[in-house]
Amino acid sequence: MKIETDDVKCIKETRLTIRNSRRRTTVPAELVESMSLKDGDKIRWIVLKDGTTFVEKVDG
């Protein structure tokens, strides 16, 4: 998959924290604002066979 840089709003990196069976990641503020996320919202991770990953807000 090719991504045009003109289509990119932001790129951020965060660390994954793994403790026992719980895995946590921090969502960068820019993504929270851009996706209008609030406490309790759900996000969906979509991983393609080539490793490309998408994250989207789950409505409802």
Strand order of the largest sheet: 1-2
Radius of gyration: 13 Å
Basic shape: globular
Helix/strand/pairing category: mainly beta
> What profile does the largest beta sheet have?
2 strands, antiparallel
Percent helix:
10-25%
Keywords:
single chain, 60 residues, mainly beta, Pemi-like Protein 1, Chain: D, two-stranded antiparallel ribbon, 1 helix, globular
Please describe what this structure looks like:
The chain is mainly β. It has a single domain (5-57), classed as Ribbon (Pemi-like Protein 1, Chain: D), CATH 2.10.260. It is 10% helix and 30% strand. It contains one helix and four strands. It has one helix at residues 29-34, and strands at residues 16-19, 22-25, 43-47, 53-57. The strands form two sheets. It has a two-stranded antiparallel ribbon with strand order 1-2. Strands 3-4 form a two-stranded antiparallel sheet. A hairpin with a 5-residue loop joins strand 3 and strand 4.
